[in-house]
Each structure stands twice: as C-alpha cells, then as structure tokens.
Design goal:
Elements (H helix, E strand, L loop, with lengths): L10 E4 L2 E4 H48 L5 H15 L4 H50 L7 H5 L5 E4 L3 E11 L2 H13 L5 E5 L2 E9 L2 H12 L6 E7 L3 E5 L1 H27 L4 H14 L8 H23 L2 H20 L1
Length: 348
Amino acid sequence: MDKSGNSKTITIKINGKDRSTEKEKQIGEREDNHDRKNSASAPYKELEKIASQELSAAEQVKEDDEFDWILPDVEEQEQLQEYKIMSQSKGKSGGKKSHHIRGKGVVPSILLIVFLAVLSGTTLGILMLNMVISDSMTEAVSGPVEEASPEEEASPTGKAVVELPALTSYLVQGGVFSTADAADVEAAAMTEKGLPAKVMEIDKQFFLFVGVADNLENAKSLGSHLQESGIDTFSKEMAIGGSSISQLQESERSLLEATPNLYKLLLEICTTAHLSNSMATEQINALAAQITEWKEFENIQNEQLQQLKGELEEAASLLSNYSENHEQKTLGKVQQHLLNFLAAYQAL
C-alpha cells in the first residue's frame, strides 16, 4: 500500500488493476448526493406538472370562452348611444350645438357661392360693356347715327290701316290763284269781313273756298247769298281725299271710320239752318247722338287726326248753340270749321 498526503488510502487490485478505495468512496458520495437531489426535486417536478396541466386547462377554457361568448364593443355602443341622444333631443343644448356647427359650415358655403356668382356676373358685365363700347366706336367712325326724335319715341305707332273714302263736297269757290301768297291775301280780306275762307292746294293751284253745302243746288243758293256782299262766287262739286293712312291705333281707326257720317250730318244741318234759319227736331236729336258717340274716341296720337276731330267737335258745339240763339254769325263760324276740316282731310 502507498501513502499520499495525510489521508490513508487502501489500494486493492482487482483483475490486475489497482482501484483506490478513497476514489470509490468519493464516487459513492457523489451518487448519494445525486440521489438525494433527485429525491428532493421530485415534489417540485410534480408541482410543475400540475401547474402545467392547470395552465393548459385555463387556456382551453379561455379558447372555449372566446368561441362561446361574443362581448359587445363597448366603444361602438357608446358611439351609438351618443348618436341617438343627439337626434332625439332637439330642444337640448347638445342638439343646438350640433345644429350651430352645421350652420357654421353652411354659411361660408353660401357666402362663397354668392361671391362667385357676383364675380362671374361682374366679369360678364364688363366684357359686354367693352363689346358695346367697341361697337359704338365702330359706328361713330363709320358714320353718324340717326336718332329718333323725342316726339316719335313718345308717340307709339299702331298697325291699323284705313282706306279713306273720298268725301263728295259741294263747294262755293271764291277764286283760283297761282301762288299761295296771293290766295292767302284774298282769304285774309274775306276773314276781315266776317266771312268764312280757306285756301286749298289742288293740282298745283290754290283754290279759295268761301262756303260748302250738302248738294249743288244749295251750294249755288249759298253762293248767291255771298254775292250780295260783293264777292264773285262759283259753285261746283269736288271729291276731297280718298287716300290711305297706316300705322294707326285702334281708336284712331274707329275715329276715321265714323268721320264721314258726322261730317255729312253737320253739313246737312248747317245748310238747312243757313237757308231756312231753323233746325228740325230730328236733326237736333241725331246731332246729340253723334256727339255722344264722338266723345268716346280718346287717346288720339296722330296730330292730323287730332285736328280733324277738333274741327268737327267745334262745328257740332256751335250748331248746338245755334239751336238756342239762332244767330247767323254762328252759322258762319260753323262753315269755317267745316272748310278747315276738308283742308285737313285733303292733306292726309
């Protein structure tokens, strides 16, 4: 046996090999320690196994819960509840606030639309104005522009056309002149004597007429009465007028259509009164009816027609006065208005 250090070691040879008893002892001690550790850790391993089984069971329960139960989305439910409250409580402050917010969004949109519309309209107006100015400048360069007179603008014309009938008249002629001045001088001389006188141009000659009657015989009788005043007369039949006139209003057309009847009635009454110094009751009644109808013609814009209407109205008014006073001067004035009417009718 050998000694090594302080410890005593027994060496045994087995099958020709030496084995140290101390080493075997150490090996045995390590194996005992390992067995003790294993025996000590056994309870812990059981606990770990149980814990693992419980964890697996919990996970299985969790998976089962996820499949079996569907929990509502709390956030979505809250949003739905808020939406319902806003839509149902219109009178509450929340609803007013939402409406106010929406109103704030609408007002700027409306203002923007109005602004764009005004801007577009202004731009278009400026472009049109520039075009008009350019056209006006072009017309000014090309030539003068004829403007309508204020009278033409103030008096709108109509579309009615009237064919004027020729008025057969029996005139007492006081002279024929080649110039208007000579005829006017003679007419003025007769007017100073209180006699009717009117100059009319026919076929480039100037005729001076001093009376008119309803037929040729009465015209000659009237001429004989004037010859007593020192005037040479000649009675004859003439057709006055007979043209057409257009661009008349309806009231003017009606006036011209009624003119011949009133003229003939006035001429008949005047001739009878001049020769007999009296008026028949039938004539007075017929004249009153004609005057009533004549007054209905209003809004006469044509100046020539205004003159026609005025001359006949004056003649009718004077004959109404003559039915009361029977003055011969009144009949002379009636003759003057009838001659003025014929001159105006001839000029149409």
